[in-house]
Write a structure and sequence with these properties.
Layout (H helix, E strand, L loop, with lengths): L5 H8 L3 H21 L5 E9 L19 H11 L2 H11 L5 H5 L2 E5 L5 E8 L2 H23 L4 E5 L12 H26 L9 H5 L3 E6 L14 H4 L4 H16 L7 E6 L6 H13 L5 E5 L7 H5 L7 H5 L11 E2 L5 E4 L8 H5 L2 H13 L2 E8 L5 H6 L4 E7 L5 H13 L4 E9 L17
Parallel strand pairs: 5-12, 6-10, 6-11, 7-9, 7-10, 11-12
Antiparallel strand pairs: 1-3, 1-4, 2-3, 8-9
Helix pairs in contact: 2-7, 4-6, 10-11
């Protein structure tokens, strides 16, 4: 059975705090509304009856020793006090508008422990009527017990007093229960969601969980709406933001991981679509360009590539067109971007055979040509799930980065991606965790600019 890390659960539960407060507030308000507007106040009046020791020596009369009040007789007296015979007499005497069953539900008979005293209680919406009914039940009960058991010394010990306040005034208790139940319910639901949530979540133990190194973590942007974002190139637009700093950290980590063998070509892929692969590709390329390296960004997602949208360039001629042309003419397919030192080859026309183009000898020749002209070449690939394009490209590059989105990518899907890349002996540099919260990533910005993706 999988162990649950409570620390991770508490981090996960943070997003449920506001819903918990809202649900608890609704539950408390609903309970208070019901208690004050719909709940009928009931008044409880009680009388006590004592069955004292008899001194009657008449052989035909049962002594109190014969019917000692104990656990066995409690139910007997209770049944007598709530019997149809007793209650019908009370209804007739007091002219109550109840059936015996209805009145029985308002009557409680209990024996006071280690005594010979029976307590008869009545709950009624009318405080005066509750005391009247209790006293009358006690009187009729005494008559019937005396008649049945031939007792002559059963007496009322305390007459019922008119109650001052409702006995069912449980507002404070019910409000506390409503709050507790609603909070517990949300916690229970959150725990079940957390337990069955198989997505990759950033933690200190993540590397051992996914059997891959963490190459970098891109913190989640502080921006709330994409409508307010004019660009996805944050290392250029917001160079001091937390997002930009995490991109630069990824760049540094990648350089250090390749210090022994060096690298020129990097493939950025992901397990699923929508993980931020293109966002990481373009920002990492721009980050390298800022270090005065000559960088080429290639959109090898020949199916849905969108680098031309991000960089604001045309897509008339692109990578797919180049692979069907003479690769020696690659320069006419390269476009300059508005970012210094950064050029791009866009996706191009959608081909009917993307995988065949990428696995062609032309593609291999093209990579060798491009490496002669650029310091860093970053390939924005396809997601690996169900598509072999990036698996093919992974065999041609120096490093492969797998982008995953925090709390979105299923572990099983990431495992399948890792296995498919490892089968072709792809040089996996590690996983890039995207959209990680600043606290989860232990990331602290020392800059004032808090804008992000």
């Amino acid at each position: 059975m999988e162990t649950i890390d409570l620390k991770d659960f508490f981090k996960y539960f943070k997003k449920f705090i506001i819903p918990t407060i809202i649900i608890a507030a609704i539950a408390i308000a609903a309970t208070a509304f019901y208690e004050t507007q719909f709940k009928t106040p009931l008044y409880r009046a009680s009388t006590t009856v004592v069955l004292a020791q008899t001194n009657n020596d008449n052989k035909n009369t049962a002594t109190l020793n014969d019917i000692t009040v104990n656990q066995k007789l409690v139910s007997t007296y209770s049944e007598i006090a709530k019997s149809t015979l007793v209650l019908q007499n009370v209804i007739d005497d007091l002219k109550l508008n109840y059936t015996t069953d209805e009145l029985s539900k308002r009557v409680t008979v209990t024996a006071i422990e280690d005594t010979e005293i029976i307590k008869i209680s009545v709950e009624h919406p009318d405080r005066t009527q509750s005391a009247t009914i209790a006293d009358r039940i006690a009187s009729v009960f005494i008559e019937e017990v005396s008649r049945i058991y031939q007792l002559n010394n059963v007496n009322i010990l305390d007459v019922a007093k008119t109650p001052e306040s409702p006995s069912n005034n449980t507002l404070k208790r019910d409000l506390a229960l409503a709050a507790a139940i609603s909070v517990f319910g949300v916690v229970a639901i959150a725990f079940l969601l957390f337990y069955f949530d198989d997505t990759v979540k950033y933690s200190e133990d993540l590397e051992s969980e996914i059997n891959l190194p963490i190459a970098g973590k891109i913190v989640r942007s502080g921006s709330k709406s994409k409508k307010n974002q004019k660009t996805e190139i944050f290392v250029e637009a917001y160079p001091k933001s937390a997002v930009s700093e995490s991109i630069k950290t990824l760049r540094t980590n990648l350089q250090f991981s390749s210090v022994d063998h060096g690298f020129k070509t990097v493939l950025i892929t992901s397990a699923l679509a929508g993980e931020g692969k293109s966002f990481v590709s373009v920002n990492l390329a721009a980050s390298f360009a800022q270090t005065n390296k000559k960088v080429l960004l290639v959109d090898c997602d020949l199916r849905k590539g969108r680098l031309h949208h991000i960089l604001g360039v045309t897509n008339v001629l692109g990578f797919s067109n180049l692979l069907t042309d003479d690769v020696a003419l690659f320069k006419k397919y390269i476009q300059k971007t508005h970012i210094k030192n950064l050029s791009v080859i866009t996706r191009g026309a959608y081909p009917p055979n993307p995988s065949e183009l990428l696995s062609s000898n032309k593609n291999k020749e093209l990579l060798e040509l491009l490496k002669e002209h650029y310091d860093i070449i970053i390939f924005d690939g396809t997601p690996c799930s169900g598509i072999t394009d990036s698996v093919i490209m992974a065999t041609l590059v120096d490093e492969v980065l797998i982008v995953t989105r925090d709390s979105k990518t299923p572990k099983a899907t990431l495992d399948a991606t890792r296995e498919s890349l490892q089968k072709v002996k792809a040089p996996i540099a590690g996983v890039v965790m995207n959209a990680v919260t600043s606290k989860a990533a232990n990331y602290y910005s020392y800059y004032g600019d808090k804008k992000g993706a």
